[in-house]
Specification:
Blueprint lengths: L21 H14 L12 H8 L3 H13 L3 E4 L5 E4 L4 H15 L3 H22 L2 H14 L6 H18 L3 H17 L8 H20 L2 H22 L10
Helix pairs in contact: 1-3, 4-8, 5-7, 5-8, 5-9, 5-10, 6-7, 6-9, 7-8, 7-9, 9-10
Length: 253
């Protein structure tokens, strides 16, 4: 019988493959479980030795995965006899941290931050008028009382100002907006040349604007709160741009 013909061979071209790190795989699995609610906030993850046994991964891999989750704000790691990795659900602080890193990493201009605040903060004020609680109003009024004291230092005035703006976001009871406004407010006031901008007249104007907005929030008048906040942040942005020549953002740690 004639020999069988040779098997036809065709060239096979493969592309380079990206193989994920074992620590990323473990971190991704734990992250999804946390976000799905399988591990409620406060849950203690298994000890490191047990995680090594369960996953059959190295101790170095397990530690790196937990460190990834810690940086992302999904676990807190405590040392000591009663320590370990404890689950925490992401909140406004996580958003603020991410936005802060974006601002610093992209070296955004001050005008970018001011324009973003003009787009976001009026919505915060409108929602605050809907959802504010008595304790929210107390925070706003206390911060504005401090702002109205012309004898306090510039630093104290700026901190009270930031407290008031963040307080409006908190009063909206929207974690995402609160996170954004926390990062934006701190970045704007840290990067503005306040000594050349803030005088007694600015303090008085700020107090009056804050009072009218607070009154609208307290009265539950969403339209008025939105309108007054729009006027306030736009006026502030215009005034800052007139005296602020720098374009780079410098945020204090």
């Amino acid at each position: 019988m004639p020999e069988s013909s040779a098997v036809a061979r065709h060239p096979v071209q493969l592309q380079p493959m990206q193989v994920p790190k074992a620590s990323d795989v473990l971190a991704n699995d734990l992250r999804e479980r946390i976000l799905r609610g399988e591990f409620p906030s406060g849950t203690a993850l298994p000890p490191e030795r047990e995680l090594v046994t369960q996953t059959r991964m190295s101790r170095t891999t397990v530690r790196e995965a937990l460190r990834i989750l810690e940086v992302q704000g999904l676990v807190t790691i405590k040392t000591g006899r009663s320590g370990g990795a404890f689950v925490q659900q992401p909140g406004g602080d996580s958003v603020a941290t991410s936005v802060n890193l974006l601002i610093r990493g992209q070296q955004l201009r001050l005008i970018d931050l001011l324009e973003t605040r003009e787009a976001i903060e009026p919505a915060c004020a409108g929602l605050a008028a809907k959802y504010r609680q008595d304790e929210d109003i107390a925070v706003l009024e206390n911060a504005n009382k401090t702002i109205n004291d012309l004898d306090i230092s510039l630093e104290a005035f700026l901190q009270a100002n930031v407290d008031w703006h963040i307080g409006v976001a908190v009063a909206s009871h929207n974690e995402l907006l609160t996170g954004f406004m926390t990062a934006l407010s701190n970045a704007i006031y840290s990067s503005t040349e306040n000594k050349a901008f803030v005088d007694d007249e600015v303090r008085k104007t700020t107090y009056k604007a804050h009072k009218t907005i607070t009154d609208a929030i307290k009265a539950g008048d969403s339209a008025a709160a939105t309108r007054r906040m729009t006027k306030h942040v736009h006026g502030y942005a215009e005034a800052v741009v007139q005296v602020e020549e720098r374009t780079e953002i410098e945020i204090r740690e």
